[in-house]
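This is your field. Have a critical look at both lines of this record:
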Amino acid sequence: MPTTRIVVTKDGRVYIEGINYVGEQCLKDLEKILSALKSVGINVSIESIQLKPEARAVQAQRAASHG
């Protein structure tokens, strides 16, 4: 079952990790989380996104099929 782990550090940094996701569904769920936070007045700016090997493989397959 897909799980999202959210860690907020003492200095206010937020780390979000998708666990057991297939493909890019984690990115879609991330957008939902960010939207929910924004709706209650919490604005999160993304400094970086690090895709796991599973998500990179899906992106590579899509690029190959469109190229």
Remarks:
- Strands lie at 3-8, 14-19.
- Helices lie at 25-39, 53-66.
- Residues 3-66 form one domain.
